[in-house]
Amino acid sequence: MSKNTVAITGNDATAYAIKQINPDVMAAYPITPQTALVQKFSEYVADGLVNTEFVTVESEHSAMSACVGAAAAGGRVMTATAANGLALMFEIVYIAASSKLPIVMPVVNRALSGPINIHCDHSDTMAARDAGWIQIYSESAQEAYDNTIQSIRIAENMKVRLPVMVMYDGFITSHGIEMVDFLDDNVVHDFVGDYQPNHPLLDINKPLTYGPLDLYDYYFEHKRQQAEDIKNSKPIILDVAKEFKKISGREYGLFESYQLEDAETGIVVLSSTAGTAKTVVDELREEGRKIGLLKPRVFRPFPYHEIAKALSHLKAVAILDRADSFGAFGGPLFTEIRSAMLEYGKIPENINIIYGLGGRDINQKDISGIYEQLDEIVKSGKVKERIQYLGVRE
Amino acid sequence: MAKLKELSKKQDILSSGHRLCAGCGASIAVRQILSACDDPVVVACATGCLEVATTIYPYTSWRSSFIHNAFENSAATISGVEAMYQSLKKQGKIDKEMKFIAFGGDGGTYDIGLQSLSGALERGHDFVYVCYDNEAYMNTGIQRSSATPRGVWTTTTPCGEVIPGKTQYRKDLTAIIVAHKIPYVAQASIWRWNDLIDKAHKAFYTKGPAFLNVLSPCPRGWRFPSEDTVNMSKLSVQTNFWPLYEVENGKWKLNYKSKERKPVTEWMKPQGRYKDALRPENKQLVEEIQKDIDDNWERLLMLCGEK
Amino acid sequence: MTTNKKGWKEIPKGGLILEAGNSVKYQTGSWRSLRPVRDEDKCTHCLICWVYCPDSSIIVKDGKIKEIDYDHCKGCGICAAECPTNAITMKNESEFRSEQNAKG
């Protein structure tokens, strides 16, 4: 296992992963903050370093449409997008999942318009959580690289055959420079393996029809199948992570537990903010505070049992959402976890902190403030406000 | 005639048992077009009459591989299929010759599908796009499209007290496609099957994008008896409403010229959707429609070097 | 709700239809109210009816009209309207229904 550590942006690291994966077709449309990824990949294409047929489509809707056509034809397909691009391809995103096409798509998290905002929040991929795609969030450029590679194996597993979106934070991770360990080309090549087609359109000996009209007598059955399939992807996600550890030394699961086992209070937070929070945890631990962190990695299928269990011993937990669901009781991560805790049967005192919308920064001071609040809640036994907005000017 | 005997030996790619209306012009067009393909073909189709009626789960009328994705993206979808074919061919994983065709109605082509069609043509994929133009969103209940002719009743341009049916003329989509500078563009009709099948063959075997616009008379939406479908197609050509021409590498060629063009009223009279337009008080409208047809014809003659 | 239809555990995944062209099992012939009847003597086997049939219901064998596929013919009447020798006439389907019922 030879190491190749480079200082690189999240976009370039992910583009490099795509290069090593060497998909048969990539149909993509540029959108900030994903643009550098497609630009970098275009360079690989222009230099003849990949076999990929790069389709420079005229919109994201056509990007996912072409991906569906290409994947149904029978080969390895990838694309990438962000925010309104994801929103524009929304209709086809559902179709990719219902047609069981193992497309892998990095999504650079950016706020959905309006007003138009090009900075980081999770409203884009949270809005797509019902579409039937496997959803994996990455804290850093390293994770974005690692998750993209693993997603090929997850998506293409014959027991899964579902599309996967891999998230990383817009600008923070996509444009920030971090240290990334790259695997060797042949290691990635062997890990992803050859593409095994399943019901390809291009097999002239076995013609078939994709995308029929379902009347009310069959649609429900097809949807029931989707619910079952995505549930069954969980053990495979873990198996792939085990295999990945063997080639990289890096461990992945359904979520990451950071100093959580003996903690009394904890924060649940996705993506790059977890990185900031870990620094706070380290500092406050030095002072003897018993605090911890849980960083979900897999959002769909939601590991409700595992996360509820991991949080069950806490006295109080703050669940951070970088997206809101207007009219709901709290943000998406909050509603998932509350429901999970209810099912598990142990419900620590909990609050929802909605933060960082449209790239509003969250810093260490904000996070230690949250831990202060949790201590208050434990001491007083009372929650003043269940759902809070952090960092917005009143 | 010899040609028909040869063609009849091939099995139809579109099988019977589909649920298109009795007398549907689109199915006639599809049968004629696909008979011109000598290689295995993958078909993409936009949401619409053709797609819906031929793939009601668990039945499919397609003997070849077929993909329906959504309404506005048959061109983008077939772009993806074709790109995968090219990729696998370059990698030596496929060696068979295959053809790619996308079908869309006027809805999925002139209107909601125009963007993805334009993009696919501009990128130069090797495929055929066929618009089966029945001049309205027929599958959802005869709503107007930009292909609906002027003066016509549709369910969203009803002939009311104040507004007399569709007020705009049809969009000249074929000309828009010619402006994309693709190698082959043609307008065809199901009446002149010989012409259509030859054009389809040219389209399949021209490298790069090819486009066929085929008028597909609709008994249901145009309000005429189902046995008149081919006759409607004939009248559309004889009145110069639907000229037959092709543009090969930018060179325009007229394929049919009536000895004496029939007046547009001959085209309108058999169709219930023109009933209001033909009322005596709408004489002016008919004159304007006739002038529009004549002006377009003159322009076409010039482009084709016939004048 | 009919109970003949398969459940979610039995049907192929992804909404795929794996049996190409299986709609031939769906008999659209039941739609007819008029039926085309071909006069063998008048027919010149020009195959014009074949090229205009929307439902592939004119069966041709070795370049000659063999028969009409009444399982699928919808009775649109195009073949009768276009036949150059008027070899096809549209007759009332009811004339044939009792015959069909007898056949079961």
Question: Key features?
Answer:
heterotrimer; A: about 400 residues; alpha/beta; Rossmann fold; 6-stranded mixed β-sheet; 4-stranded mixed β-sheet; 14 helices; 16 strands; globular; B: about 300 residues; 8-stranded mixed β-sheet; 12 helices; about 15% strand
Question: What's the CATH topology label of chain B?
Answer: Rossmann fold
CATH hierarchy, class of chain B: Alpha Beta
Greatest interface and its participating residue counts: A-B, 42 and 46 residues
| Poorly predicted regions of chain B | none
CATH C-level class of the domain at 43-93 in chain C is: Alpha Beta
Write out the CATH superfamily name of chain B.
Answer: Thiamin diphosphate (ThDP)-binding fold, Pyr/PP domains
Helix content of chain C: 10-25%
Count of discrete domains of chain B? 1
Strand residue percentage of chain B: 5-15%
Helix/strand-derived class of chain C? alpha+beta
Coarse shape of chain B = globular
The helix-strand sequence of chain C is EHEEHEH
**In whole angstroms, how far apart are the ends of chain B?**
33 Å
Average pLDDT level of chain B: 97
Task: Please explain how this structure is put together.
The complex is a heterotrimer of chains A (394), B (307) and C (104). Helices cover 42% and strands 18% of the residues of chain A. Chain A contains 14 helices and 16 strands. In chain A, strand 6 (134-137), helix 7 and strand 7 form a beta-alpha-beta unit. The model of chain A has no long low-confidence stretch (mean pLDDT 97). An 8-stranded mixed sheet of chain B has the order 2-1-3-4-6-5-7-8, with helices on both faces. Chain B is globular. Chain B is α/β, with parallel strands linked by helices and 307 residues long. Chain C has a domain at 43-93: 2-Layer Sandwich (Alpha-Beta Plaits), CATH 3.30.70.20. The longest helix of chain C has 10 residues, at 94-103. Chain C is elongated and about 55 Å long. The chains are: A alpha/beta (394), B alpha/beta (307), C alpha+beta (104). Chains in contact: A-B, A-C, B-C. The A-C interface holds A 98-101, 161, 199, 206-212, 214, 217-218, 220-222, 224-225, 228-229 and C 1-2, 5-8, 11, 13-18, 20.
